[in-house]
Amino acid sequence: MLKENFKFCSYFNFIVFCATLILIWSLLSTHWEIGMLSQFLVFAVLTVASECLPVALPKGGYVTVSCAVFVAAAILFPMGVILPIATCGALILFGKAAEDQPLWKRFFNASQFIISLAMAKTVLIQAGLTDFAVDIRHLPIYLLAAFTYMLSNVTLVSIALGKISEKSPWAIWKGNIRWSVPNFLALAPLGVLMAMIYVRYGPLGLIMLSVPLLLARHSFQLYIDMRKNYLNTVTALVQALEAKDSYTSGHSSRVAEWSIKLAEEMNLPEDRVEFIKYAGILHDVGKIGVSETILNKKGKLDDAEWKFICNHPVIGQNIIQSIDFLFDVGSAVRFHHERFDGAGYPDGIKGKDIPQESRIIAVADTYDAMTSSRSYRQSLSSSEAIAELRRVAGSQLDPEVVEAFCRVIQKENQTEKPSPITDMPIAN
């Protein structure tokens, strides 16, 4: 996999090389005092345990509670102790964490931990703070060091994921920061508290913090599980629809997939991409309220039947509005059949008055409809569908969105590239 991606391979080698130099320098410049080995072992075991309990993130990657352990270690110990602790946490894994992390990933993780922690410790050194002397008055500096670690961690990983997926590292960085900040806000103060308790009570004092540390991990896991359950609810609604209309089986998931790619091509923020994903999956959910006879009719629809079809975006909005976690997704669903020239339905709005999310879904929906076989016609080829999209750009569809979609298709038709590598640590 590494050989297939020269850009990432070069970046990987550079990060590992830099981390190795930093680690060697820190070991040579640190005088190990009596008792320091036992302290190292305590924190190394705690770090390994933390890394073996990852929480998977929706966008790939994971977070762990080891951020708190790293913050405490940075406050307490010299550089030559901190960096080996982080190295152990990345390289020594057990259970599912070990299965999900091949050796090269562990080396990359260890390297980015080393670089990130070295930068965090540098903040403390520059502030003149002494090892193993924790003072609550220095809390702002401790938090600044923790923030430096998080920022470095997210940046290094985002660049790696950008090179692997050939996407903008900046876009990935913004998405990763969104997930990292809540984890940071919960764990950085806990790390400071861990250092204070360790100074006063020693290793036994860390047992007192094992419960809040596990609770922090459990709380984040519950949040991720809640989001997963939301998506399962959405999927169940779509499956109920597709059970009625055999010709549209898989249509909603394909529209969602195309819509996501299109939104990313247009450099929309992650929260709007997430919004569009839900809207794409649910864009036709209102057809639940339309008779199967009408949905599967092979001949031309009469005026009354067409009226029922034209009402499905409104039905869809009404269904979605009753689900609290979907927020304003219903508005995007309501307007996805509006035309750019104002001749669409149900409200006849036009141009930029149509929500951008709806205009994106309209293009994805139209393309998938044309490239899928229906009861009343055969499917078109991708090139034929693209030609038709360009023909109706400016009348039926937003021309800017159509051109962005053409770029998406062009990229899809290029030589197949290696699959993106996921499960990198986003923030720890």
Describe the largest sheet. Answer: 3 strands, mixed
Number of domains: 2
In the CATH scheme, the class of the largest domain would be Mainly Alpha
Question: What's the multimeric state?
Answer: single chain
List low-pLDDT spans: 417-428
Order of helices and strands: HHEEHHHHHHHHHHHHHHHHE
Radius of gyration: 26 Å
Distance between the termini: 25 Å
Q: Structural class of the secondary elements?
A: mainly alpha
Shape: elongated
Helices, by number, come to 18
β-strand amount: under 5%
Topology, number of strands = 3
Neighbour order of strands in the largest sheet:
1-2-3
CATH architecture of the largest domain: Orthogonal Bundle
GO molecular function: hydrolase activity
InterPro entries: HD/PDEase_dom, HD_GYP_dom, MASE9
Keywords: Hydrolase, Membrane, Transmembrane, Transmembrane helix
Protein name: Metal dependent phosphohydrolase
Describe the model.
The chain has 428 residues and is mostly helical. The protein contains 18 helices and three strands. The chain has a three-stranded mixed beta sheet. α1 crosses α6 (103-126), α10 (251-265) runs antiparallel to α11 (270-282) and α10 packs across α18 (399-412). Mean pLDDT is 84; it is low at 417-428. Keywords: Hydrolase, Membrane, Transmembrane, Transmembrane helix. It holds the Pfam family HD_5.
